[in-house]
Automatic annotation (TrEMBL):
Protein name (record): peptide chain release factor N(5)-glutamine methyltransferase
Superkingdom as given in the UniProt entry: Bacteria
YrdC-like domain location: 294-479
Record GO terms (molecular function): double-stranded RNA binding; peptide chain release factor N(5)-glutamine methyltransferase activity
Keyword RNA-binding: no
UniProt enzyme class: transferase
Keyword annotations: Methyltransferase, S-adenosyl-L-methionine, Transferase
CDD domains: AdoMet_MTases
Keyword Transcription regulation included in the entry's annotation: no
The EC number(s) this enzyme carries: 2.1.1.297
Organism, scientific name: Winkia neuii
């Protein structure tokens, strides 16, 4: 008879030859399923134990999921039961649960963890993994879990029996399911069926039930789109949606969330860097204001002075801006764009002479360019002045400065003073060309929106830096290089 250690070595070899990704850990876990704790295991396996073990090894080599063979799976800090015919929760889903837990915890903290202070709904709960993680890590939360499949409901009930979770068997996309909670939920989280037809890549996934895998339609989006609509109704103003998806679906699902009225829509990545889930929030009531350009000056000025974010029209697209002298405001601006830690945005000025408010010097040649092309689509890179809301030396010691060509923008800047402004969009998405698009991106993250109608579209400004006696064009925009060179050489 083999020793447990020797059998594990043989089993790992068989699994490795079969192409299993983690042969030794799997072989060890299968041995524990047969003999229990390896530290207290017998020195030799009995004939029946050896037969049982290598039968399990054979099944694992044929890609039967390890969890089906051991009867258990791990999710965050909990050990769950697993059952053939019920979807095996994946490690990457822990990131989805983490986002939901963070959103729920933010609500609970404000309510000082009063029992029942935060409501969380897990749609398409499957084995109950996400719902159980939320209930386990935030005991003050009230959690509902919805699942349609009878076998999955049976397993979820077993996995949730020691937690305060309301398990409902029903259609997660139906308006009748949890209708009594409509408009009152703080967080909706879902790992719905979303796999596009014929795109299962892991051999183990072929053992998962089709109901839990395929989202419907060639793109797999039929169920996820219905989840977005249902979440929109369930959530209260300010409530959060977190939903897992395939990497190929991120752009369409962000657009669907915005179309449904969500704001602050973004895509989260798993530990492997893949686009894994959509994160979105409903606007809070009364937390933002939209003004026409003629009436916006005073509220815009007040919002900027308070360190709030604002959206204004520029020459080409709408821009989101903040006081460049406030580190908190600039950090908030970059976070809203999903660009935390990156270079600060350019600073827009009302008048050319205001460059002295944000830069330390301007050479005669750069001054000649400013005189020739400001106001207009020219951005100059100048030595940074003092008092900016970021460590200018850590960011290269320079600042990007422009005087916009749009009259309405300069009028607004007269009231606010210089503004750090970047295109009004989430990093990676199209810039907003009207206020409605900007609201879909940022919602009540922005205090004041200025509506000046539609803008022409994203035509980039030309960006110029000075290197010694030479002009360097960092980005070619609408101003021809020959025009710039003529002014530079004549200065």
């Amino acid at each position: 008879m083999s020793s447990p250690r020797g059998a594990i070595k043989q089993g790992a070899y068989v699994l490795a030859e079969a192409g299993v990704a983690s042969p030794t850990p799997d072989a060890r876990e299968l041995m524990e399923a047969v003999v229990g704790d390896l530290f207290s295991a017998p020195s030799k396996l009995s004939a029946s134990q050896e037969e049982e073990y290598f039968t399990l090894i054979g099944k694992r080599a044929s890609r039967v999921p390890l969890q089906y063979l051991t009867g258990k799976m791990y999710f965050r800090r909990r050990t769950l039961k697993a059952l053939p015919g019920v979807f095996v929760v994946r490690p990457e889903t822990e990131m989805v649960a983490e986002e939901a837990i963070q959103a729920a915890r933010a609500v609970a903290v404000k309510a000082k963890y009063r029992p029942g202070c935060v409501r969380v709904v897990d749609l398409c709960t499957g084995s109950g993994a996400i719902a159980g993680a939320v209930a386990d890590e935030i005991p003050s939360a009230r959690v509902w879990a919805v699942e349609k499949d009878s076998k999955a409901v049976e397993l979820a009930r077993a996995n949730l029996e020691d937690l305060s979770v309301n398990l409902i068997q029903g259609d997660a996309t139906s308006a009748d399911t949890l209708a009594a909670l409509d408009g009152s939920v703080d967080v909706v989280v879902s790992n719905p069926p979303y796999v596009p037809a014929g795109q299962v890549s892991q051999a183990e996934a072929l053992y998962d039930p089709e109901m839990a895998l395929y989202g419907g339609g060639e793109d797999g989006l039929a169920v996820p789109l219905q989840i977005i609509k249902r979440a929109r109704v369930l959530l209260r103003p300010g409530g959060t949606l977190v939903m897992e998806h395939a990497e190929s679906q991120s752009q369409k699902l962000r657009a669907a969330c915005r179309e449904a009225g969500f704001v602050e829509v973004s895509t989260g990545r798993d530990l492997a860097g893949r686009q894994r889930y959509v994160l979105a929030r409903l606007p809070r009531i009364g937390a933002m204001s939209i003004y026409s350009a003629p009436e916006a000056s005073e509220p815009l000025k007040a919002a900027v002075a308070d360190g709030e974010l604002v959206v204004i029209p520029t020459d080409t697209v709408y821009g989101i801006g903040a006081d460049p002298r406030s580190s908190r405001a600039v950090e908030k601006l970059l976070a809203a764009k999903n660009r935390s830690g990156q270079m600060p945005p350019p600073i827009l000025l009302a008048k050319p002479e205001q460059w002295r408010l944000v830069a330390s010097t301007m050479s005669p040649k750069m001054e000649a360019l400013a005189k020739a092309f400001w106001p207009g689509a020219l951005t100059l890179i100048l030595p940074a002045g003092e008092g900016l809301g970021w460590d200018s030396q850590a960011k290269g010691g320079t600042v990007a400065v422009r005087v916009p060509g749009l009259d309405a923008a300069r009028v607004l800047l007269e009231g606010t003073g210089p503004l750090a402004v970047t295109s009004a969009n989430i990093h990676g998405d199209d810039p907003a060309q009207n206020v409605s698009d900007a609201v879909k991106y940022f919602g009540d993250t922005v205090a004041v929106y200025v509506d000046a109608g539609s803008t022409p579209g994203p035509v980039p400004s030309t960006i110029v830096a000075e290197e010694g006696e030479h002009m360097r064009i960092l980005r070619q925009g609408v101003i021809p290089a020959s025009d710039l060179a003529r002014v530079w050489e004549s200065a």
